[in-house]
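On clarity, I found the account of how folds are encoded harder to follow than it need be. Since the whole study asks how a given chain folds, the encoding of that fold should be made plain. For the editor and my fellow referees, an illustration may be useful. An entry of this sort, consisting of the sequence and the corresponding backbone structure tokens, reads as follows:

:::
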Amino acid sequence: MKRLSICHVSSGHNPTDNRIYKNQAISLQQAGYNVSIVTPQDNGFCDINIKFYAAGGTLKPLSRLFLTANKVVQRSLSLDADIYHLHDIELLRFAALYKRMGKKVIFDCHENWIHYPEDIKWLNGLSKAIAKRYIKYLYGTYLPLCDMVIGVSPHITFELKKYNNNVHMVTNYPRIDDVESIGFDFENYSARDKVIIYTGTVSDQENIIRSLSYLNDVSYKVVGNVSPTYVDTLRNIPGFDKVEFLPYLDKTALLSECRSARLAITGLKYSANVGYKEGTLGNTKIFDYMKYGLPIACTNFQLWTDQIVRKFDCGLTFDPDDPQSIASAISELLNNTERSYQMGCNSYEAVLSEFNWKSQESILFAAYDSII
């Protein structure tokens, strides 16, 4: 019997994106599908079980919308897959083309696209209104054509269900097959310096840095690629002298940095994309911190507060617009060592028991079964 083939198509992600490759593609390949990934660029990565194709084009916004989107779609069609799994809003309009070719089509909504333009700072009010209207047109015209639609968080799937009857929520929880044991005891944890760590895309740092001006004997490590221009905008903020910027680190080096920190922080701001104060399960950062056994200081989103922090007693929340609120959460974690250590242990256990990719893998498989 022929193995069904799946082609993941993206005009805005790199080939080894966590959600597309490390979670979905690997799981589907291990389940017996032939899996390929088409993206604009090739980063040189090789997997003997999954085929990668570079279609050309850039990841710049305007190029993505037109040139790059067309390139990845044409390259994907040349593979003649059975199922096409689309990962970007600019690809949604091609659902009709795939359907005319007799293909199964999945649209995977990583973002709250219908409200996404509200958060784009370089668009003026009129442009945002036009963009929102166009995205509503895309949703209304092409989502009903899709055989299945996937959302990454409750507020996103709620919106998608207005346009398609086969909608599933598959979140971005981390894989735990490569997670070591927690690897430290209370004596090790209590001996650490008062280091706060942030990892990933470097943004929304202003109020976290301001909060440091209220704290003594702390240092803040920001790990990830950051533009010199953005660093310059932060330089005059009180508390900047306590910040150390580190470049992107490989897995081993990142683990080492996390194992020297007392807590991890994320100050994601209220925005349309994350459902404002509801929050999102699509942001992987908080779960990665928990995977390393760290107590977390995070935005007081309703989802994070109720379903993660309070439920598992694994950290404290704060108002991301209030530096004193951030400082209070940090101070309480740093000055209550035994409590913070236990919260870190709780974080790790929560990932093992609930916030892991295995729980989402079964949902993904069931979703695919619904269209085969």
Observations:
- Residues 89 and 113 are 7 Å apart (CA to CA).
- The chain has two domains: 5-173+356-369, 186-353.
- The longest helix spans residues 125-142.
- The domain at 5-173+356-369 is CATH 3.40.50.2000 (Rossmann fold).
